[in-house]
Amino acid sequence: MKLLHIDSSILAAGSTSRQLTAETVAAWRAAHPDTQVEYLDLAVDAPSHFGVDALGIKTGVQAQPTEAQLRENALSEKLVTQFLAADVVVLGAPLYNFTIPTQLKAWIDRLAQAGRTFKYTEKGPVGLAGGKTVIVASSRGGIYSTSEGGQAAEHQESYLKVIFGFFGITDVRFVRAEGIAMGDAPKAAALAAARADILVATTEAANQKNVAQAA
After folding, report:
1. Is residue 16 part of an annotated ligand binding site?
2. What is the pTM (predicted TM-score) of this model?
3. 139 assigned to a ligand binding site
4. Rounded to a whole number, what is the distance in angstroms from the first to the last CA of the chain?
5. How far apart are CA 170 and CA 105, in angstroms?
6. Which end of the chain is more exposed for a tag (fewer CB within 10 A), N or C?
7. Would the annotation count 141 as a binding residue?
């Protein structure tokens, strides 16, 4: 089994999401000792934002790609190949200004490739990257999950559910710590709740929801 461990927080050692991804990976490996882990730090090695050169080769319009297009395409192919090779993805996704970090969005833009992670059909888009388990370590300074207004304001977990679903991934699990900027007691409670989520998320077999649906 291959696990891709991804961090995106810019806060280095002070990051709650990084702490949670590390604990999640450790718990997964304890429960599944045969797991091979690959690590990607999007804050340190951030892909450039998706631009016309990254799109160029994909359109098939140009007979001879430019050097910039070849370079950008190579980066996209490296990232999507790495993603597709993973059975499990543990993804650190802090909430920045109501959504995910720009570095994480740039990574997702590289993955969203017709013919690789999705395709269009007469009945609409179909995901091609199913069969994976994604565990998202979600960290939030405030509390968004318990009110209608909070749920409407966050475009972090909601966005990740949609985009991974678009890729065909039905097994998306969340390890959530929210309210971590609201004081010591709320932060401690948030971390305790997240660690309970880790226990649940890592003891269940990979892609167990798909297995249950197929049974």
Report:
1. yes
2. 0.92
3. yes
4. 22
5. 20
6. C
7. yes
